[in-house]
């Protein structure tokens, strides 16, 4: 039985309504044109209620991105396994990454975030730092494989960035900059296989 007090549940529902309304507003109007008044109207709450949950538009937008980044990082953690073929492990890592990018909300709001970052270098640096944190699992895997003597690189961060670039050149930047649709299953597999094979051709032993 759920013993959580009703007012808390109502507060949670209002917070979710605000976040949903803000996602819709940011996607539709962009960062600069979105206002707390418009978010409150769409959410069906007072402006005061919006500010009770989020002190500013910046804080609201940051919370939305945080939720999307958290969701994109969901799933089982893939760690280096000395007993498995490298290609199989890399395919799992890359396919997990591709699936995390297959989200129209994430892509739309990433587009809004990038546009907002152009006018605010400090905001842009913060967003890039957050995105890099979400990509550390590949770096950790590469570092472990190199330490085990199965990859030849003394710069796992550089190698990881290269791999991310191979993936995002098909599954992120075309969607962000040219409005292309997310990749389908077959296209994801093709991108993953190409990226993994190129990576192993360069760094494999």
Automatic annotation (TrEMBL):
<feature type="domain" description="HTH tetR-type">
    <location>
        <begin position="12"/>
        <end position="72"/>
    </location>
</feature>
<dbReference type="InterPro" id="IPR050109">
    <property type="entry name" value="HTH-type_TetR-like_transc_reg"/>
</dbReference>
<dbReference type="Pfam" id="PF00440">
    <property type="entry name" value="TetR_N"/>
</dbReference>
<dbReference type="InterPro" id="IPR023772">
    <property type="entry name" value="DNA-bd_HTH_TetR-type_CS"/>
</dbReference>
<dbReference type="InterPro" id="IPR009057">
    <property type="entry name" value="Homeodomain-like_sf"/>
</dbReference>
<dbReference type="InterPro" id="IPR039536">
    <property type="entry name" value="TetR_C_Proteobacteria"/>
</dbReference>
<feature type="DNA-binding region" description="H-T-H motif">
    <location>
        <begin position="35"/>
        <end position="54"/>
    </location>
</feature>
<protein>
    <submittedName>
        <fullName>TetR/AcrR family transcriptional regulator</fullName>
    </submittedName>
</protein>
<keyword id="KW-0238">DNA-binding</keyword>
<dbReference type="InterPro" id="IPR036271">
    <property type="entry name" value="Tet_transcr_reg_TetR-rel_C_sf"/>
</dbReference>
<dbReference type="Pfam" id="PF14246">
    <property type="entry name" value="TetR_C_7"/>
</dbReference>
<dbReference type="InterPro" id="IPR001647">
    <property type="entry name" value="HTH_TetR"/>
</dbReference>
